[in-house]
Amino acid sequence: MTTAYIVDAVRSPVGKRGGSLSGIHSADLGAHSLTALVERTGVDPGAIDDVILGCTDTIGSQSGNIARSALLVAGFPEHVPGVTIDRQCGSSQQAVHFAAQAVMSGTNDLVIAGGVQNMSAIPISSAMLLGQQFGFSTPFAESPGWRERFGDQEVSQFHAAEMIAEKWGLSREAMEQFALESHQRAIAATDAGYFAAEIAPLNGLTFDEGPRRGTSLERMAALPTLSEGGRTTAAVASQISDASSAVLIASERALTEHGLTPRARIHHLSVRGADPVWMLTAPIPATAYALERSGLSIDDIDLFEVNEAFAAVVLAWMQETGVERDRVNVNGGGIALGHPIGATGTRLMTTMLNELERRGGRYALQTMCEGGGLANVTIIERLG
Q1: What's the pTM value of the predicted model, to 2 decimals?
Q2: Cβ neighbour number for residue 107 with a 10 Å cutoff
Q3: pLDDT value for 131
Q4: Within 78-151, where are the H helices?
Q5: Does residue 369 carry a catalytic annotation?
Q6: Which of 52, 211, 217, 300 could form a disulfide with 336 if both were Cys (CB 3.0 to 4.6 A apart)?
Q7: CB neighbour list of residue 212: distance below 8 Å, 6 or more residues apart
Q8: What angle, rounded to 10 degrees, do the helices at 311-321 and 172-191 form?
Q9: Residue 66 vs residues 30, 57, 63, 201: alpha-carbon distances, Å
């Protein structure tokens, strides 16, 4: 089987809701990372076999196959195809999987995987809410078949986060401490210049807008919970954000033909499902499955990126896997840096790749919870 290599990865800064990137059309936002990736690698955009972008809530500026729109805005030749995929929060991580699988199968040689999301312009769940305005039912709750299988249980990421906190015995204080560390780590990484090499500045923005330098446990403690009697507040949840990101995946033949030097190879990729009502727990069994399939152990992995949809998700995952905090989200995560849903998967991979190189490690593992009770896992191996 052909090996899939990561040639390079790049991302825009992550803009906060209503911030510096909020007014940028989604096609232009997506095009920015595509253009930057081509410029950095020197690859001929006409040689790209496919562009696969993750995006959710594909209405308005994100409708009509945003991957195709973005690549055309980026100036790619018209013969280059594009496709948009939606695996909820894992959309662009799944884009990497599809790109790698195309290369590994011998179907393609050069594929760009990435994602784009302008959550300021198109708020989260807009597609669902718009459908309700036109009299259409929700994706699951009003389905007789769904109710027959799952009953009338509440299906909500916020409810799931609360259930996780209760089941794993996570106090509000523990989750707030985790959130504070996310901000502290992101600020330290920013100040050290760790993100500079992976960010292609946009609209005058050269850094991520999310990390809060003035936050504290006292400020977090003053926030109301998202549900009466609950433990979860906005402080321990990921931020609404705007961004794009992209990764170039290549075959060995493409490396030779285009004179490209790979930075890493895809060692393993998989996706698993879990209870859709609990929704956010799938990274736990998905990680166990990936390690078993890859023949690696927890101790073989130098770095982990576990998306911080909520602090509870990562803390429960750490409890179950036994992974130490100093190997997890070492430069902060979605609580501080933001979670531009469609773009987060390849944003995480871009950051993970750079940190793996900086530390001289060998393996890094990325996973994230996704709507419907899903989780992708990708393990990359550094080269050089």
Answers
A1: 0.96
A2: 13
A3: 72
A4: 91-104, 126-133, 144-150
A5: yes
A6: 211
A7: 183, 336
A8: 100
A9: 8, 11, 6, 21
Q: Are 62 and 122 within 8 A, CB to CB?
A: yes
The CA-atom distances, in angstroms, between 62 and each of 17, 68, 112, 157, 248 are 17, 11, 18, 23, 22
Contact 301, 169 (CB under 8 A): no
Which one of 32, 55, 89, 183 is the catalytic residue?
89
Q: Count Cβ atoms within 10 A of the Cβ of residue 37 and give its class: 0-12 exposed, 13-18 middle, 19 or more buried.
A: buried
Helix%, strand%, coil% for the chain, nearest 5: 40, 20, 40
Reference 100, options 266, 252, 291; nearest CA is 266
The pLDDT score that the predictor gives to residue 296 is 98
Which among 32, 267, 268, 339 is annotated as catalytic? 339
- CA–CA separation, 90 vs 161, rounded Å? 17
**Residue 267 is among the residues annotated as catalytic for this protein:** no
Residue 54, SS3 per DSSP: strand
- What would the two tokens of residue 315 be? 């803390």
Q: What is the distance between the alpha carbons of residues 92 and 381, in angstroms, rounded to a whole number?
A: 19
User: How many Cα atoms within 13 Å fall on the side-chain side of residue 106?
Assistant: 2
Residue 8 CA to residue 99 CA, distance in Å, equals 14
Residues paired with 241 in a beta bridge: 16
353 vs 367: CA distance, rounded Å: 14
Q: Which domains does the chain have, with CATH numbers?
A: 4-124+240-258 (3.40.47.10), 267-382 (3.40.47.10)
pLDDT of residue 136: 67
**pLDDT by 10-residue block (mean), the chain, 384 residues:** 94 98 98 98 98 94 96 98 97 98 98 98 82 71 87 91 98 98 98 98 98 96 92 97 98 98 98 97 98 98 98 98 98 98 98 98 98 97 93
55, 97, 183, 369: the active-site residue: 369
- Alpha carbon 104 to chain centroid, angstroms: 22
